[in-house]
Amino acid sequence: MIRSSSVFTLLFAAGAAAAVQAAQTAHMSDSSAAAAVVNDYLQGLQFNDTLRLAKAFWPSTKLLWVKRDGTLGELTQTAWYASFRGSVGQRVEGTLRMVKLELTGSAAAAKVVEEYPDSRYTDYLGLLRIAGRWWIVSKLYVAERR
């Protein structure tokens, strides 16, 4: 006959294992969803697709970098998208990839590298899960000319 304490231990262990598996599945799902937003960003860049970029970015997100004179550069999405005029839909020659993605709860950080024939960009994207959907809410970048 199985004792009640043994049954409790078995039930507790089974419940704990199920909770761990559910948490891992939720994390994988969040990771996949955040990665999909970063992919929208990369595809938007690769094809000068401002609609796809807008799908990835929270509407008020600004792009930030350090200018050559050492001051802070800021660019609104509207101004950035205007720079794509005349090339929307055209594929840009280069290799774009997500190097790293880390998640903690409803926050994530992605490192993206864009290799072009005459330059290399390293982007650090901050993402938040807002109302159940991942958004890029910050973009810091460094541009290196070759």
Structural description of this entry:
The chain has 146 residues and is α+β, with helices and mostly antiparallel strands. 38% of the residues lie in helices and 38% in strands. The protein has one domain: Nuclear Transport Factor 2, Chain: A (Roll). It has helices spanning 4-46, 50-56, 77-82; strands at 62-66, 72-76, 95-104, 107-116, 119-130, 133-145. It has a 6-stranded mixed β-sheet. The chain is globular, with a radius of gyration of 21 Å. The relative contact order is 0.16.
As for the CATH topology, it is Nuclear Transport Factor 2, Chain: A
Query: What is the distance, rounded to the nearest whole angstrom, between the alpha carbons of the first and last residues?
Result: 76 Å
Q: Which strand order spans the largest sheet, edge to edge or round the barrel?
A: 2-1-6-5-4-3
Secondary structure category: alpha+beta
Q: Provide the gyration radius in Å.
A: 21 Å
Task: Write the SSE topology.
Layout: H1 4-46, H2 50-56, E1 62-66, E2 72-76, H3 77-82, E3 95-104, E4 107-116, E5 119-130, E6 133-145
Parallel strand pairs: 1-6
Antiparallel strand pairs: 1-2, 3-4, 4-5, 5-6
